[in-house]
Amino acid sequence: MELTFVLVAFVFGLALKITGFPPLIGFLMAGFTLNFLGYEATPSLEVLAELGITLMLFTIGLKLNIRDLYKKEVWLGSVTHSLLWITVVNIIVTALAWFGLSAFSDLDYIDITLLAFALSFSSTVCIVKILEDSGEIKTRHGKVAIGILVMQDIFAVLFMVVATGKIPSVWAPLLLLLYFAKPLFKKSLEIVGHGELLPLCGFLLAIGGYELFELVGIKGDLGALVIGMFWAPHNKAAELSKSLMSFKDLFLIGFFLNIGFTALPTLDLVLTALLLCLFIPIKFILFFRLFTWLKLRARTSYLASLVLSNYSEFGLIVVALLVSNGVLEAKWLVTLALALSFSFLVTGLLYRSSHNQYNRFKHYLKVFERPDRLAEDTYVQPKDAEVLVLGMGRVGKGAYSSLNNILGAKVWGMDADPARIAKLQKAGLQVLVGDGEDIDLWDNIDLANIRLILLALPSIEDICNITEQLQHANYQGKIASIARYEDEIQALLDAGSDKVFNFFTEAGTGFAEESLQLLEPSNSL
């Protein structure tokens, strides 16, 4: 990749970050700027873009429980939404063409249907990036959104098979034999340890899965996702995902730059792309009403619908195939690339304040809730709780154990990941599933007797949001939080934390205090 690409991407990404916008929007702008200046995508950039998507799908798989796809809100929601969306877009575009709008006048019914299908997908790259940055990928709404994305990816793969006539090889069923190789791979993953071999092993699994599926005539991206799901139950899955995070984020910059290199837009194409973006609220409304109809709570429905309200890179792939087959004109590839970029911008901006938006409109949104609740959406009251630990990762679990030794049953733990909570409950810990950024949760929990809440979360934005939700819920106790960096401490104090612990400094202090107990007289020989 040329130094100019890296420099321009950095400048635009930094500028957007300074102004409070997601850097990925800057990377998109950098791509169009480089294209305008006369640069062209290089083979190395395209390789990095493909590798970034492969790693992203693999890490999604590592965090995905296949049982989530069996849930009605996922499979029925995705299928129904696609059918409704295609129908509604067909009606709108046909009406626009009938009224003489030139952008759509040369499209027949089949063309419109295929274009609507391409626009039905939501962006895996954009959504996963947003959810990861906000620490919400394992929340209820995050898992619903990821489940919908996986279903859409399956739809895309099936369409590619039909459209290209590329039928999977007769050897494809042999992929099922991978299940019997699981003990061997499990042992290998344990042997590699925690150093540089771990991310290398991740690269091998992701790229190997991609190439293996391509070898038998199945889209390689699906292979990376499936192999990731294959390893999701492994106890090192989370560590493996974290080891790949920096590589994935770096390589995905190539993907965003690549979009800008698609073609130089004309004014007509920009206006058509903006018109397509006016359809996005329809996508949001359809998702929201479907989710509430399927008994999801209003908050879960709102947040999942909001993050899914964009266009997808898979739509670009579908349109590129239609253009190559002569079904659509080449201008639609540029138009969709622009619409995709604009939709990323809209989602990135709106989701930053999504929790405050829900708090503002929740009384109107709750009107659409069904009276009966799914089992996963019921609230559990922490009985006799005086101390609550939010975030039951390594730090939170350690804090819970120490406090439990002192206060016993007065200490409860909370985490948004149901799988983690299930394991902890099985181990005998007093914990419950809950998303700390959910104002409805705090409104339904009796906070009167809770004197202290510990926020053991990795994201400063999450901690600040939870602190704000607790203030809205009129919580009167104390709040302690964790900071990873020195410059985060004052921001957390300003947000409302009563005490902030620097993770690395306090870990050293705790280690020293625990070690000094070895020198006490009762421990001497």
Descriptive report:
The structure is a single chain. The chain is mainly alpha-helical and 525 residues long. The chain has 24 helices and six strands. The protein has helices spanning 3-18, 23-36, 43-62, 72-98, 102-105, 109-119, 124-133, 140-164, 182-191, 197-215, 220-231, 237-260, 267-277, 280-293, 298-307, 313-324, 331-352, 354-365, 394-407, 418-426, 439-444, 460-472, 489-495, 503-516; strands spanning 387-390, 411-415, 431-433, 452-455, 478-483, 499-502. The protein has a six-stranded parallel beta sheet, sandwiched between helices. α23 (489-495) links the parallel β5 (478-483) and β6. The termini are far apart. The relative contact order is 0.10.
How would you summarize what this structure contains?
This protein has helices at residues 3-18, 23-36, 43-62, 72-98, 102-105, 109-119, 124-133, 140-164, 182-191, 197-215, 220-231, 237-260, 267-277, 280-293, 298-307, 313-324, 331-352, 354-365, 394-407, 418-426, 439-444, 460-472, 489-495, 503-516; strands at 387-390, 411-415, 431-433, 452-455, 478-483, 499-502.
